[in-house]
Amino acid sequence: MIRQMREILTDIRPRLMPDETLAADWAQPYTVETIGHLLLKEVIEEAEKAAVFTDEEKEHLDLASQGLPIAKIADRQGITDDVLKYHRQLIFQKRPNKPLTRIVFEEFITGKLRYTPEDRSVPQPHVTERQKDVADLICLGLSDKEIAAWLSIADDTVKTHVNALRSALGAKNRIHVPRRMLETRTYQMP
Questions:
Q1: CATH of segment(s) 55-109
Q2: Is 124 a residue whose pLDDT tops 50?
Q3: Is residue 84 packed enough to be buried (19+ CB in 10 Å), middle (13-18) or exposed (0-12)?
Q4: Within 13 A of 86's CA, how many CA atoms are on the CB side?
Q5: pTM for this one?
Q6: How far is the C-alpha of 108 from the C-alpha of 138, rounded, in Å?
């Protein structure tokens, strides 16, 4: 299993971190948890070095992380859909080859975007360990197909987990998952 995960990481890591070469320590024998922490550590390091977003771009990312569609984001920012799409292009230029979900997650884990944890008296949603695994990989920007390969499960099973996860968290869409994981204390920062 670990060898298979390392092979998958070798395949997807250039897309996750396109400007870096594989470090020698990735060839060492690690547990599933250690590989996850190593990957998260590198994601954080990369995000901290990444280009800084303007206030408008940060506002766009914040609104997108709330699961709002483009039309509502544009309305809240007081701009047209075309201007908003231009802002999104600028965001993708600053973080090439990364899905919006990954960019939002990077901004949360580096403290550049803020979220408000729910009151501890509110019970945490019931999320299975497998759904947490899926959520972690969504936060890293992996597609359903990549998640299926990573977890050695069928694409349809991934879709089932994603739908159950979104339902449990009250997430409106995939981009909303990282924020809801943090707000509901389902995901704890290392």
A1: 1.10.10
A2: yes
A3: buried
A4: 6
A5: 0.71
A6: 14
